[in-house]
Design goal:
single chain; alpha/beta; two-stranded antiparallel ribbon; potassium ion transmembrane transporter activity; transmembrane helix; transmembrane
Amino acid sequence: MPLKSPTEDDYLGIYSIMFWTLTLIGVVKYASIALKADDQGEGGTFALYSLLSRKMDIGFFSAKNLDSNSIFHEGAENKSRLGKFFEKSILARRILLFIAMLGMCMLIGDGILTPAISVLSAMDGIRAPFPSVSKSLVEALSAIILIVLFLMQKFGTSRVSFLFSPIMGAWTFSTPLVGIYSIIHHYPGIFKALSPHYTFHFFWRKGKEGWLLLGGTVLCITGSEALFADLGHFNRSSIQMAFLFTIYPSLVLTYAGQTAYLIRHPNDHEDGFYKFIPKSVYWPIFIIATLAAIVASQSLISATFSVIKQSVVLDYFPRVKVVHTSSNKEGEVYSPEVNYILMILCVAVILIFGEGKDIGNAFGVVVSLVMLITTILLTLVMIVIWRTPSLLVALYFLVFFTMEGVYVSAVFTKIPEGGWIPFAISFFLAFIMFGWFNGRQKKIEYELTHKIDLERLGTLLSDPGVQRVPGLCFFYTNIHQDGLTPILGHYIKNMRSLHKVTVFTTLRYLLVPRVAPEERIIVRKLGLKGVYGCVIQYGYADTLNLEGNDFVNQVTDCLREHIEKYLDCLPSNPVDIQEEISALEEAKLSDVIHVRGKTRFYIGKNCKRFDRIMLAFYEVLHSNCRSALPALSVPLSQRIEVGMLYEA
């Protein structure tokens, strides 16, 4: 913080600013309000966008784009005027999506910067007792610690979380004790600064200089967004209790102790933390601080995995491998690709921008922008979903938007001094997200306009040139009820055949640990001879294994029961029931194949230059990402992939 000849009043004003920032943003906004705005137990800016999308029928997972049995459908009745406005305005929807994407990209940037600055700042404590230790050595040690931390991510948070409580317990207990000692020893009257008078007096005296100093004070609230984004790893009540009864009072006392020390040693502000620690407890505090920095880094890494998973599920980010490391918590996930990219970027930030000032400036930009975006989205949630009284919404928005807006304006002055780093990261991520979103939107639009309905399927099968060949075919499709994938028409026209028994299969992911056996497979007759629909539902802890006869037997048993119930309700001859069941058994014994589509865009000459560039970029992403279907253990001899070009 660029303090010039700081006085007692300066330090009292800064502490007052930090106290009210912690209280209003940490306690009121995040712990009391934001944690209630979860989406299926998930938190973060993209979870807020998901809530708004479903309620206002916008985006891919709106009610009008899904079938009536969809788990994402929440109804559209009693919509607010604001919700109707977003449905009608394309510009408003795009602005909302941009805000959500920016928030997510900034949080990922936080996941890169927090481990870097936390571990680097903690390890820098070695240099106080050993001035001969070079900055390069501190950077190397910090990089090694981070590499080990990232390599441990594959074991899951639950495997190492038993260490978190003792570490954070030691941190939240020891640092306030040092703070209390410092208060008594240096400046017992420090708590008079809790009066807002000192905040106003500070700005009155300092003017523009006081405004610029906010770029440093905003760092006192770092980690608050992770507190919200980590909802998938910890439940709401545990986060609230931990923050309100341990973290918050610990920070208040620690910052008070540091301020008391600095009032008596005004020129030590460049390294106020380690210098205010008594020499007798220096090394124990150093060890605890380093371990606490690692735990803080872990929380941002976990939050990054969570927001990536949310965006992948909502189809706003290229599909990466997501591994659930816990069978009890849906939000506890790990992504190998994301993990190693984060590791490389974190180490690069330390080695390239080892000077803590540049990383701190970048960190301030991330923290303030993410907080401001959360305020905007939470305001919309209050209006559209919670139906909060207008006066309370206005009070919330006025207080937090003004407060965080001032912080953002202050940290923006630091863009030339390292603040550009998160913008570079966010621009790159946003370009990836927009390219993927644009391509997926074009693909869904094509599939909805070229879908094969049952009437069209009947016409295709009635063609004398189309044969019904023996065997059982599982045809995987991502469009259900309203129609079937255009790949089906492409397949029939070119193969001139369809199996005598064809089951159009949709795999549906549910936000539950495990799906009950009786709800796992849902089948129905589609009205054409030998043509059925099947939905396979699975949870995040289920193992989706389609190998062998077990899966086939489960589906055919469900089909047999459905045929008996379906035809039993019609004035049909029992012989018809037996014939259909016999045809099903005969097809199963004859041959079983699994057909899935593989699509690409054909970029014609009539395609606009912008669409040409974005679709080409989407094809690069699509070619290098994971398959839309889960890893199915289907034997290679039973797999058939049908390629099709979608005309852009």
